[in-house]
Each structure stands twice: as structure tokens, then as C-alpha cells.
Amino acid sequence: MIVTRSWLNEFIDLKEITDDMLYDTFNAIGLEVGFMKKGSIPKRVVVGRILSCEKHPDADKLNVCQVDIGLGTRQIVCGAANVVNATYVAVATVGAILPDGLEIKPAKLRGVESDGMICSASELGLPNIGSGIMILDDSIGDLEPGRELCEYDTINDTIFELELTPNRGDCLSVYGVARDLSTAFSRTLIEHKYARHNKKIKLGISREASLNVHSDVDAHISCNLAVQKEDSQLPLIVYIRLAMINIPSKNKLDDALEYLLHATGVILQAYDADFFRNDDGKIVIELKSDHMINISNAAETGSVVGVCQEPKTKPTSQNGQIVLIASYIHPDTLNTMIGGSKIKKDDIYYNTSRGSNPDFAFGLSIAVDLFEKYDILDFYEGTLNHEPSRDDKIVLVDIKELHAIIGQEIEKTIITNVLQRLGFRVVNVGDDAIAATVPVFRPDISNIQDIAEEIVRVIGIDQIESKPLSFQECYHSDSAIAVYRAKKTIRNRAVSAGFFESISYVFSDSTLLEQYGFETTDSNSALLNPIVQEMNSLRSTLLVNLLLSAKRNINYTKKLIPLFEIGMVFDAKRDEKEKIAFVWSGQGELESVINHGKPSMMNMPLFLQKLGFVLGDFGLQECDQSNKLIHPYQSANILINGNVCGYVSKLHPVAQEELGLYDTFIAELDFQALMPRHILANPISNYQGVYKDLSVLISKEIAYSQVKSAIDALSLPILRSVYPVDIYEDESFGNNVSLTIRLFLQSQDNTLDDDVIENATGSVLSTLGANFGAALR
Amino acid sequence: MEELTILESSITACTSLDELEKVRVDIFGKKGTLAKEFGKLATLSAEEKKSFAQGLNLAKEKLQATFDMHYDVIKTALIEAKLKNEKIDLSLYNITPNIGALHPVMETMDKIIEYFVSLDFSVENGPMVEDDFHNFEALNLPKHHPARDMQDTFYFADGSLLRTHTSPVQIRKMLSSKPPIRMIAPGSVFRRDYDLTHTPMFHQVEGLVVQHKGEVSFANLKSMLTEFLHFMFGEVKVRFRPSFFPFTEPSAEVDISCVFCKGDGCRVCSHTGWLEVLGCGIVDPNVFKAVGYDDVSGYAFGLGVERFAMLLHNIPDLRSLFEGDIRLLEQFR
């Protein structure tokens, strides 16, 4: 919503209130200022009166004008075609500096001296109001040749753009904003007195027109009949202001209606009277309520009240009869009627759905004033009305309850006063309560907290003193704090292991997901209105987005790219699951003197070590996951607490090449698996233990995890741990390798005898022999 | 005693521990000079014996002291040489550590969460895919209400939507438990908006306090948020401006004095001196009605974590936060 100072000034006297005070007040009363722009018409640009205008002797398109600029007459050459119609113009005199930096100097144009420049609106820093020079008229004030244009507050105006919240339909007009200011400044609004400009005796509307109201119509309608006058035009101020509020000029009538809507907030629409004319030549306006409220002729709908008007019902000629209809529909009624309907909505819906101005008497008096003053329309006497009865909305305000909401005592007289200034009717109900009748233009107010909001914004939030709240005891054992803390621990570990925390969108490109073998959401769960193709689906893995991030980092010349993310992924049915994913692409460490500037590339053993820093104790077994990021020969399932919860893999070389990445390692796990486990400690033995190494020849096809499982299955009580320490290949071994495992043996009860140790290693060896055909090397 | 001087200089002439050991054997050994001298005692008369022994003992003490002193000198020199030999230019290795960093948005969220947890707020989660009731209807945003225009929404074919704010978590919490409630709901939210200053996903922290009717006031809300903003941003001025949210009433937007120009006006604050950081208000009675709460009062607030992070860390580009950009992240190591 854009308002200007001079426009506001038509409804409220802003004397002694500076622009900066206005700015602060708007913000203080909840009409947030988006921007404020003060008028900037340069000095030495003055009102000029054209005394004569003759063709330039040597240039067809130039005119030589003699212009009275107050202190004397200047000869000015002008290139604009419309100068021939002009009397009063804006003249940049010698010495003026225009906003684009042009300094006006005496000049010769094709041999003719020119002492100044006749300006267009945009040349003066005003919004563009069409081609040619700006022709001044007295709508901007009394025109005195020589008077500087920057003294005319009407066009050297200050513009405020207000970012209105959707509840404030009442402020969708300059008048409405002025009304709110009148409360803030305790100034009364300027009463608008309508005086007839046209003294001719008028015909009554009912001679030619009638209004048929069919059923219970819950909308206020007022119809006027008028005749268009062809040879007239709107004043300059209308065009300047329309340009200031960014409304393009269409035609005289539409421009006037846009101007009036913005000024008064009353919905006014013009119809060609012929649309309503029946076979007898009479204008019959039908008002029907049929799901929505329609204004029709005998056969078809012309407009839906508060929503849209059929373009063909608008006046086509510039001289015929028109019907001018003011309408008001309560926004709640309208919004209920609209329901899920896909009906086309005109721009006015923005106003009507938030609440347009129901004060027709005011709106029409301003309208008639403008139309008659500039001879745009000739009105018939009287109006055809339909006004449904509406109960007053009364809010009972318990003063103590109001105090409790605000947290501060505010005198009842102040509350009453504020509400009255806002247009409420207030009646005392006992000592501690008032009944406030809500003005029709505030459909947003319906309960005591709405009233509290009004009181707070008018007296100012600064006037409310902060008070700490005594918290009531709360128990929240089901809170997610534990999960949050666990997450924090994991995140910190990942950072220590070298990973950067990354956040990516929960959206992914469905094509990419499918390309790499990940599921996408079912069609009935699919995203209806994605913002771009690359985000047209919910992600079913964190990895694709993380790999794209890694790729971007390569473009940023990064050679070491370790990323992790904790986030939600969505399956085909759109069920959410929290995952943690890791990507490490490129070098294994930063360049340094230690590695002589040639760090090794990341490799699987090192990546597993990094993962261990984050995951703690974890196991690996053969990978049974399948997607096209996984390297079939360098991948494994990850087990935590004995349960499979994800996988680790080298990035498949095909994907690596497609994505343009370095050697890359990936892992993705269910986050839930990383929640802290409850651990019970084993007793610690005080007896000495022994380490025993066994080197066996074993088939290359046997995974160490199988060897480990077989040994674990023995459940030897003294076997405390077993781990591989060497792997050795030699041609002479054929299809076998030499695997060295180290056993740590220890008893809880005594120092181990040699034969007990022999026994244990013997049973390990025989198991390996029986299961895998392995033998001591 | 001429001989003593010679012996002393034989000690001090040593330059290594080996040489010194040789000299020690020569002087103090069983067959050394001193032993020989003491051997002479047997040949002397009782009178001579006394003074000779005295002189000899004195000489022995002196020699021992010289020896000890010189031993220390050599030992110290040796250690010094060894140390010198181990010299390393540490600054060569004073390199960037091979660690990562927390994301500034998440780190900011942590700070916010820890603040409210210390005030005994619970932390609550909710689904990202929501339904109309929890995201809008129960929050006093009936269908086709113009206030819904404030939030461009992502919809699914079956009518579900991606939550546009973390407020539905409040609704879920209130529906599943009884008052009093003191909670925050941190999480990602989604709006169909993508330009320099908007991303389709961002993070919010929502807060809600519900107690008996008449207990929770706007003045309480002011107090709590002012303290919170001081905790987050240090000594800033805090300004409340009346505003509108469908789910609170009275509502306010909260500004802090610009952290960059200290309120003088700069590019970041669009030359206003103020930065908008929070929305808040007293919970609208329609919200309580929707969850079946009677006789309660409460306040609620919500903030955008990205905005906090950008202001706290002077990060100019919102989009860079979602790109895993290591050039940004490595600054937080």
C-alpha cells in the first residue's frame, strides 16, 4: 500500500508533523514502512506560463516558446509535440541541475537561442506519466509563474510504501491510513463536504433504471446512473499519483476509478448501461444470490460482487450512459462463498477479501466531487440501494482480563478513549467492563485479544514494561533433548574426523535419483508445485545432494572435500527417516611439509578410520545394498550393535566420472542407530594375558569377516580379542593368501598354562581348517 | 702446592666425559695420585702425619669440587649440544588442522536451543510433511483466508503439504499433552520462494509457553525475548513493533539495532538502523480452541535461524548456506 503525504493531507491535517515523525508513527502503530522516498524536484525548476509558441524556422519538430517565468520572459526551444497545447509548464531555468546530472545552460538550438528547458515529469525525477512535457494545472496548487515547483507539496511529495498485514483491509486506502493516523496523532479527520458543481436540474435515476433484488443478498449495493462527457480530462494530480502507486493509465474512466479506490477504499465499478437495458429500453439491474452474489441483466451475469467483472460489461464508448455501482461484501462472507472455487478473480479481490470500505456515503461523495468538478460524468439524481441488515458486533471487554493479557494496568478511561478514536462505540458495563461496538470497517476484530492488540499498538509497545514470567513447573521426559544432545556429539565427532557439516535442500532431481537407482515418491504423493526441475522431488538419499555439493567444491578449486549431513529422507510413500551421510572426495589430508606437498588420495582404509572416529564401534559385512553409487568390490554393510544400519562404499567409477569428482568415498546410515547405547562393563582380569599370532594360508575368496565370525562362534572364554595384523600375497600361494591374525588370550581366574593356550590356538586353527580349508603357513 | 694446580688443570682441560673419567681414575682411582699420596702417610711420624693428612684432605676436597664443577660444565654443554641438534622450526607445522567445522546455521541453532533448554524449555519435533489442519487450520488460518498468502506453500498430490513454519509442532504438542507447556520446536520449513533473499527451505525455531489463564502476558513476552536477544547479539537495542500473525494476538515484530552500523544506518539494515529478527505474540484464543484448551494463556515466538546466523557471522549470501561451500565452512574451523 503506497500513500503520499499530500494525499494523506487531504484527509488529515499533517501540519507540524515531519516525514520522519510519520515514518516512526507508521512503524509504531503496526503499519510497517517498507520504504520512504522524499520528493526531489530540483531547485530552479519553476512554473512557467507560455505566452507564445511558434514553429522553429529551421526545424520541423521544434517550437520556439516565449515563457513567463515570473522574473521575466525567456525564449525556450522545445521539442515535445504537446507543447502547443500547453499553458503552464515546468521550466528548468539556467543553473538548474536535473536529477540525471544535466545542468541547464543558455544554448543555441539550430541557430535559435534557448534560455532553459521545458521538462517532462520523468526529467524532474517524478514517475513517468506519458510522453511529452508535463502540462501543469491547478490541481497541484495555485499556478504562479516563477514559483519553484519543489514548493508544491502536491507533486514534490513524500512517498511511503506500507507493508500492510493481511488483517488490515481498512488501511487499503489513503483515507483508511489517514483514519489510523488520526488515532495515533489524536487529530480529527478533515470532514469532506460535498458541494454540487453542476447546478443543472437533474433527472431522477428511477425514471430510467430499477434494481431487482432476488433473494437474500448479503451484500451492500448502491447503483448510480450517469452520462459520460467526452471533451474532458482528469487533472494532473490524478496521473501523478497513479504513477506514484504504480498503476498504469488505461482510459479516463478506469483511471478515475482506480484513483478513487485507492483514495477511499470504496469499491466502485462502471458498467455500460446498455448491458442492463431490456427490450423496453429500461435499465434493469438484477441482484441475485446464487452461491455467490451476482449482478446481472435478464440473461447473464455481469459481475460477481467482490470478485470479478466481465470485461464486456464495461463502458465501450466515451459518451453513453453508464451505471456506477458501489459494492461491499463482508470479507468473511466472501471468503466462505469463494471456498475452493477456482473462479477468476480481478484485482479488487485483494481489497474485498481483506475488507473494502463500507462507507458509501463518503466514497460516493468524493467520487461525484471528482467526476463533476472535471466534467467527466453527469449524474442522475438519487441511487438504487440494497443494504442488508447487519447486527452490530459487540465485544465485551473485561478490564482485568485485558490487563492480564497486556501484563500492565491501563486506565479504563485511556482504553475507552483509544477505542473511541479507532471508531468503536463504547459503553460502560459496570466498573470493570466495557462493551465495544466494532466499526464495520474493522471486520478483523472479534474478541478481547483483538482489542488488546489495538490498545497495545496505539499506546505503543514501548509503554509496556517488561516483566519476567514465573514459570510453572513442567515435566518433559518425552522431550527430544536427548536426541538433540546425541546429535550434537556425533556432529562434533564428525568435525574432529575432518568432515564439514553441510545442509542441502530436502528436494532432489527425480531424474538423478532414478539414474542412480534411488526411489522417488509415488505419483499420488508427488510434489505438485516444485519450484525448479532440480528440486522436483523429495530426496530418498542424502548422498546425491552431497555429491553435487562436492562437485561444486571442485569448481571452487577445492582438492580435499569431506562433507557430512544429518537430515530427513523420504521413501516412496513419503515416510520420513533421519539419515547421516558422509562423502569424502579427493585428498586424504591437506598438503603440508610432512607429506612434501603431495598428500595421498583418500582410500578405503583411511575412510573407514575416519568413520570410526564418528561412529565408534562398528562392524562390516558383505554389502547387500544396490544402487549405482556403490562400488561392487569396495563396499560393505555397516553394523552397529550387530544390526545393519547402512553402508559404506567407494563411489562407483561411472558415477564418479559422470559427476566429475575425484576418487570419492561415501557412507549413509540411519541416524537412529547412532543413539547412545546403554553399556554394561565386563569385569577386568588381574591375570596376565598373552598375544598369539597365527599365520594361515587361506583362500582369497574368504572375507575376513567370515573368519572372524567363525572364530567368534567358538565362544572361547579366554579369547578376549582377535584381529588381523598382516596379509601377504605370493605367487607360490596360488589362489591363497597368507593371513596373520593376533589372538589375545586371558583368563579371569588364573594365569594361563601353556596347554590351555595351545588348546585355544588349536581349536581356532581347526575351525579355520574345517570351515575354509585354511592351514598354518 | 704446585702439584695441586697441575692436577686441577688436568681436570679443567677435559672436553668430554670420557677424558674426564680417565682423569678421575688417574686422580681418585685406587692407584691414582691421591691414593699414592695417602700411601705416604704410613711412612710419616705421628706429628707429621697430622698436618700431612690435613693438607691432603684439603687438597682432595678441592680437587673433588673442581671435578664436580667441571663435570656439570661438560654435562650441560653436552645437553645444550643435543638440544641444538634437535632444533625444529615449529612454524613450518603450524598448519591448518585436518578437521572440519559445524555449519554456521546449525551452530547458531545449537546456541538458541541451549539457551532455551537452560530455561527448562523442552525440545519438540514434528513431521515435515504436514496436513492442512496442523499447518493452517488449527493456527487460525482458515482455508481461503488472505493471511495464507503470506506463505507460499508446497503441496502434494494427496493434499498434504510441506510445513511452512514450525508452528504445527505447537499444535501437535498441545494436542498430545496437557498444559503447562514450555517448548521450542527447531527445524526446517519450506516456502515456495527462490531468489537472492529466499530459499525454498530454511530453519526456524518456534517457542511456546502455556500456563493458567491470566498468567502469561505480553509484558512477559517482552521480557523473555529482550533477554534472549541480548544473549544472542550482545548489547543491542531491542524494539517491538505491532504486527499481525493469524495465530497470535497481540502480535509484534522484534527489531534489534543494526549489529553492523550500531544503528547509524548501513546497507544491511537498508539505512534504517534496525534489523527485523523475530515475530511473536500472545497466543490467539482460536488456537487454544482448536486444540481443546480452556482457561489458559500463553505466548509464542518464531525466528529464522539463517537470518540470525547471517547477522551473527556477517555472511552475505543466503544461498551459499545450502551448497556445502567449503570456502565458507572452513572459516568456522
Description:
The complex is a heterodimer of chains A (777) and B (333). With 777 residues, chain A is an alpha+beta fold. In chain A, 25% of the residues lie in helices and 28% in strands. Chain A has six domains: 2-39 and 159-184, Phenylalanyl-tRNA Synthetase, Chain B, domain 1, CATH 3.30.56; 45-151, Nucleic acid-binding proteins (OB fold (Dihydrolipoamide Acetyltransferase, E2P)), CATH 2.40.50.140; 205-386, Phenylalanyl-tRNA Synthetase, Chain B, domain 3 (3-Layer(bba) Sandwich); 394-462, Phenylalanyl-tRNA Synthetase, Chain B, domain 1 (2-Layer Sandwich); 481-674, BirA Bifunctional Protein, domain 2 (2-Layer Sandwich), CATH 3.30.930; 690-776, Ferrodoxin-fold anticodon-binding domain (Alpha-Beta Plaits), CATH 3.30.70.380. A seven-stranded mixed sheet of chain A has the order 25-28-29-33-32-31-30, with helices on both faces. Chain A is elongated, with a radius of gyration of 42 Å. The model of chain A has no long low-confidence stretch (mean pLDDT 92). In chain B, a hairpin with a 2-residue loop joins strand 6 (238-245) and strand 7 (248-257). Chain B is rod-shaped. Chain B is 41% helix and 20% strand. The longest helix of chain B is centred in the N-terminal third of the chain and has 40 residues, at 46-85. Chain B folds into two domains: 2-93; 104-332, BirA Bifunctional Protein, domain 2. The mean pLDDT of chain B is 91. Chains A and B meet through helix 7, helix 10, helix 12, helix 13 and strand 25 of A and helix 5, strand 1, strand 4, strand 5 and helix 8 of B.
Write the SSE topology.
The complex is a heterodimer of chains A (777) and B (333).
Chain A: E1 2-4, H1 5-9, H2 19-28, E2 32-37, E3 45-56, E4 59-68, E5 73-78, E6 88-92, E7 107-109, E8 112-114, E9 117-118, E10 135-136, E11 159-163, H3 174-184, E12 209-213, E13 220-228, H4 236-244, H5 252-264, E14 267-272, H6 273-276, E15 283-290, E16 292-296, E17 301-304, E18 308-309, E19 321-328, H7 331-338, H8 348-352, H9 360-373, E20 377-379, E21 384-386, E22 394-398, H10 399-406, H11 412-421, E23 425-428, E24 433-437, H12 448-459, H13 481-496, E25 500-501, E26 507-508, H14 510-515, E27 537-538, H15 543-555, E28 560-570, E29 576-586, H16 604-615, E30 619-622, E31 630-640, E32 643-651, H17 653-659, E33 664-670, E34 690-699, H18 704-713, E35 719-728, E36 736-745, H19 754-772, E37 775-776
Parallel strand pairs in A: 12-15, 25-28
Antiparallel strand pairs in A: 1-11, 2-11, 3-4, 3-6, 4-5, 6-9, 6-10, 7-8, 13-19, 13-20, 13-21, 14-19, 15-16, 16-17, 17-18, 22-24, 23-24, 26-27, 28-29, 29-33, 30-31, 31-32, 32-33, 34-36, 34-37, 35-36
Chain B: H1 2-12, H2 17-28, H3 33-39, H4 46-85, H5 104-118, E1 122-123, E2 129-130, H6 132-135, E3 161-162, H7 167-176, E4 181-190, E5 201-212, H8 218-233, E6 238-245, E7 248-257, E8 274-283, H9 285-291, E9 296-304, H10 305-313, H11 326-329
Parallel strand pairs in B: 1-4
Antiparallel strand pairs in B: 2-3, 4-5, 5-9, 6-7, 7-8, 8-9
Helix pairs in contact in B: 1-4, 5-10
